[in-house]
């Protein structure tokens, strides 16, 4: 009985993550030019608000294509920015999805065991022409502020 | 109180752009990384077609140059000359293509490139440093 309940809980949890949303397929990696454009927009958003950020752009595999660190950004944000971008690329969804599910309670603590999933908002997949071409990760201020800058980066690619 | 020079993001962009231009001029596809004097990443580009391994190697070379305050070629040559025990030092990447960035006699960081032959990688990073106009 216990086992059945456990399997049931696991199924629900997996459903919540796996079928949370249909994710786009992976595509060819984002060009360096577009990566720079996205990072510049994210940095501009940060500068406007007087925030200091590390900004990472990865390919669909989560490997770095572009990185920049604004003056006086905390050193810890280097790997956090990269970790958020990697999470978004490798799991094909915003890193906030993990953060929100964890906040729901005990059913989701298993998410902490997923290799390479950083459950902190500020990482977003970059989708172009319906395909995931990479991800952007931003770190340096609060989660909401990091997300705001990452979103500004994505917006720049729509223009 | 002692003051020391530090690389700004603006400096990094300038260095990286010049290094990238040098690579493009020669039709080389590389990754270029700039790190601060503690070996922490400041700026990285991976040109279209360069591999994730190139990015990792560029970081490793730049980190070695920043932390040891020497060209990575120095380590390559010392080991080549038979000083194999150097390989037992705290993690270094003794492969040409990484240079320290020295301002007013102070090492403010390092830059590394990877993607073409080692001496060409060094040519790229040297062009980057030159853009600082020191």
Please provide a brief summary of the model.
The complex is a heterodimer of chains A (159) and B (134). By secondary structure, chain A is α+β, with helices and mostly antiparallel strands.
Low-pLDDT parts of chain A are none
Count of separate structural domains of chain B:
1
* Spatial strand order of the main sheet of chain B: 2-1-4-3
Shape of chain A: globular
Radius of gyration of chain B: 14 Å
Number of helices of chain A: 5
Termini distance of chain A?
55 Å
The CATH architecture name of chain B reads 2-Layer Sandwich
Assembly state (oligomeric): heterodimer
Number of strands of chain B: 4
Share of β-strand residues of chain B: 15-25%
Give the CATH H-level superfamily of chain B: Haem-degrading domain
SSE run of chain B = HEEHHEEH
Helix content of chain B: 40-55%
Give a topology summary:
The complex is a heterodimer of chains A (159) and B (134).
Chain A: H1 2-18, H2 32-48, E1 54-58, E2 64-69, H3 77-90, H4 96-104, E3 123-128, E4 131-139, H5 143-158
Antiparallel strand pairs in A: 1-2, 1-4, 3-4
Helix pairs in contact in A: 2-5
Chain B: H1 9-25, E1 31-36, E2 41-46, H2 52-68, H3 72-80, E3 98-103, E4 106-114, H4 118-130
Antiparallel strand pairs in B: 1-2, 1-4, 3-4
Helix pairs in contact in B: 1-4
Q: Could you walk me through the main structural features you see in this protein, from its secondary elements to its overall organization?
A:
The complex is a heterodimer of chains A (159) and B (134). In chain A, strands 2-1-4-3 form a 4-stranded antiparallel β-sheet. Chain A contains 5 helices and 4 strands; from the N terminus they run ααββααββα. Chain A is of the alpha+beta class. The longest helix of chain A has 17 residues. Chain B is of the alpha+beta class and 134 residues long. Chain B has a single domain, classed as Haem-degrading domain (Beta-Lactamase). Chain B contains 4 helices and 4 strands. In chain B, strands 2-1-4-3 form a 4-stranded antiparallel β-sheet. In chain B, helix 1 packs across helix 4. Chain B is globular and about 40 Å long. The model of chain B has no long low-confidence stretch (mean pLDDT 97). At the A-B interface, helix 2 and strand 2 of A face helix 1 and strand 2 of B. Strand 2 of chain A pairs antiparallel with strand 2 of chain B, so a sheet runs across the interface.
């Amino acid at each position: 009985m216990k086992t059945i309940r456990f399997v049931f809980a696991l199924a629900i949890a997996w459903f919540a993550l796996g079928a949370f949303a249909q994710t786009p397929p992976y595509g060819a990696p984002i060009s360096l030019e577009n990566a720079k454009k996205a990072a510049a927009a994210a940095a501009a958003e940060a500068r406007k608000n007087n925030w200091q950020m590390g900004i990472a752009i990865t390919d669909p595999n989560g490997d770095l294509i572009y990185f920049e660190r604004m003056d006086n950004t905390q050193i810890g944000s280097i790997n956090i920015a990269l970790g958020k971008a990697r999470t978004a690329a490798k799991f094909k969804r915003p890193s906030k999805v993990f953060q929100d599910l964890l906040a729901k309670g005990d059913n989701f603590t298993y998410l902490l065991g997923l290799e390479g999933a950083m459950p902190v908002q500020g990482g977003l997949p970059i989708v172009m022409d319906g395909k995931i071409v990479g991800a952007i990760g931003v770190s340096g201020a609060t989660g909401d502020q990091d997300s705001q800058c990452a979103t500004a980066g994505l917006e720049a690619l729509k223009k | 109180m002692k003051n020391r020079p530090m690389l700004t993001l603006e400096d990094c962009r300038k260095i990286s752009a010049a290094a990238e231009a040098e690579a493009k001029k020669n039709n080389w596809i590389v990754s270029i990384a700039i790190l601060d004097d503690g070996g922490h990443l400041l700026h990285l580009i991976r040109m279209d077609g360069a591999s994730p391994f190139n990015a990792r190697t560029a970081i490793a070379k730049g980190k070695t140059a920043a932390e040891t305050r020497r060209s990575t070629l120095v380590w390559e040559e010392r080991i080549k000359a038979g000083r194999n025990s150097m390989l037992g030092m705290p993690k270094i990447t003794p492969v040409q293509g990484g240079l320290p960035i020295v301002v007013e006699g102070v090492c403010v960081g390092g830059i590394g490139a990877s993607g073409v032959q080692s001496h060409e990688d060094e040519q790229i990073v040297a062009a980057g440093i030159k853009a600082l106009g020191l």
